[in-house]
Write a structure and sequence with these properties.
single chain; about 60 residues; mainly alpha; about 60% helix; globular
């Protein structure tokens, strides 16, 4: 579904757990700059990595 949405210039939702399915396509959809921004925000707000362990962005 992610591939089809991106091919049509769209996106998929990332809410309420659906985002875990979206992780593989996020880098293609958002680009490296947005992924880096998300990693930086996560590092600033959760430097010990204790919030949502195992759920990685970027």
């Amino acid at each position: 579904m992610i591939d089809a949405a991106l091919a049509l210039g769209g996106t998929t939702t990332g809410e309420h757990g659906v985002g875990l399915s979206k992780l593989p396509g996020m880098r293609r959809e958002l680009g490296p700059q947005v992924a880096a921004m998300q990693r930086a925000a996560t590092a600033a707000l959760d430097p010990q990595g204790i919030l949502n362990p195992g759920e990685l962005v970027g």
